[in-house]
Amino acid sequence: MAAELGHFINGERVGGTSGRLFDIFNPSTGEVQRQVTLASAAEVEKAVDAAQKAFPAWAAINPQRRARVIFKFKELVEKDMDNLARMLSEEHGKVLPDARGDVQRGLEVVEFACGIPHLQKGEYTDAAGPGIDVYSMRQPLGVVAGITPFNFPAMIPMWMFSVAIACGNTFINKPSEKDPSVPLRLAELMMEAGAPEGVLNVVNGDKEAVDAILADPRVKAISFVGSSKIAHYIYATGTANGKRVQAFGGAKNHMIVLPDADMENAVNNLIGSAFGSAGERCMATPVAVPVGEETADTLVAMLKPKVEALRIGPSLSEDSDLGPLVTAAHREQVRAYIDLAVEEGQELVVDGRDFSLQGYENGFFMGGTLLDRARPGHKSYDEEIFGPVLQVARAKNFEEAVALPSNHQYGNGVAIFTRNGAAAREFAQKVNVGMVGVNVPIPVPVAYHTFGGWKRSGYGDINQHGPEGVRFWTKVKTVTQRWPEDVQGPEFVIPTMG
């Protein structure tokens, strides 16, 4: 019988009581390796109870002492890196080097959160008026929650809870039920680092757990990463219930290739960003936009042999480019999009649908696919595929290249490859997308800047991590004070500082 995972509530692992189980597959073999129990609303309530009880004491600890816990957590995650990466690869399917990158990119935000004594400082104005001083303070919100996706089971939880906890909040993580082992282990490491019981809780579940989090008035803020449809639901429901919400959705990132670009460099970057992690990244680059027919013909000709030569292997491989997709159902969804693209008239340059890995025939593998002549109006172009599929959408000129990502329903990330600084600058200013890379294929900002897309890629007006993350997980209190030397008479006009 497969091992059963439960939850992490009030400082310890606890078994589930709902009786509802979800299979966790090994994507490389197709076998069920364990099961996770899906929380009931009552189990979510227990987690909120624990977080609510822990909040006053944790919020009262000074920021420097909270930072010491976060710093110790960072050290423990670094020591446990190989174990975390292996656990992640076995459940998600991304290869080991990519899994280590998942953990490391999360750690970069943990490092940022170690600076919370400086980041959480307020503002002060001396003598704002006669004998009057004004100062502000950033205070934690209370119990907060993160609903995190399957594709980054280490990075995105750490993006959320490290900053939230450093600010003095207590946290509930509802990870994807497809790969919950890493979030559970991270909660154990946070307790080992010195966080009190109830500061970080993990509740595994599905929509029932999500809805319980959305409905509980004690949960003050929610951060979400996932599909746009669910992001919109989380944002609409959460804000209707009086919560602060940031909800990040899908993406269809474009990479514009101008005729003057270093083509070898552009192709290599495109291959890595399109097919790394089997394309299961919201910051992948599934659309190439060569400008001009000559550029397009050259790009496709150079891409074809590299797509055909992709090294595909089991997730625990150290030398493969990509591993399997996360589930059989997701693989079939990606396959259906490729079928649709062919029906829509796109040219199938490389077909990865029937790829099978010897010795792993039951795994959820798919080869790299290259499609040419995608365009707006094709459903396969308009929607997110989230697999090892690269579409080429040819643009006649620079203006058309800018318009393609600008007019797309998603606005997460975009890149341009060129040697022309003026063109790159104009592109960065004009394109209607939240994150822009110039000769950088995956423009995920460093931890001390901020991450967030536009349009259907992001709901809410405050982004993740960086100073924006501190803003999201805190509220500002402003104090106006005066210590009069003499007794003052009543004043019947609104106070001014003149």
Write up what this structure looks like.
This protein is of the alpha/beta class and 498 residues long. The chain has 16 helices and 23 strands. The strands form six sheets. It has a seven-stranded mixed β-sheet with strand order 15-16-17-14-13-19-20, with helices on both faces. Helix 1 crosses helix 8 (207-215), helix 2 (63-79) runs antiparallel to helix 4 (96-113) and helix 4 packs parallel to helix 6 (155-166).
Structural key phrases:
Aldehyde Dehydrogenase, Chain A, domain 1; 498 residues; 7-stranded mixed beta sheet; alpha/beta; 23 strands; Aldehyde Dehydrogenase, Chain A, domain 2; 39% helix
Question: Could you provide a short overview of the structure?
Answer:
The protein has 498 residues and is of the alpha/beta class. It has helices at 41-60, 63-79, 81-92, 96-113, 116-119, 155-166, 181-192, 207-215, 228-240, 263-275, 293-308, 328-343, 379-382, 398-407, 421-430, 466-472, and strands at 3-5, 7-9, 12-14, 21-26, 31-37, 124-129, 132-140, 143-147, 170-174, 200-202, 219-225, 244-248, 254-257, 287-290, 347-350, 369-372, 389-392, 410-411, 413-417, 435-438, 454-455, 458-459, 474-482.
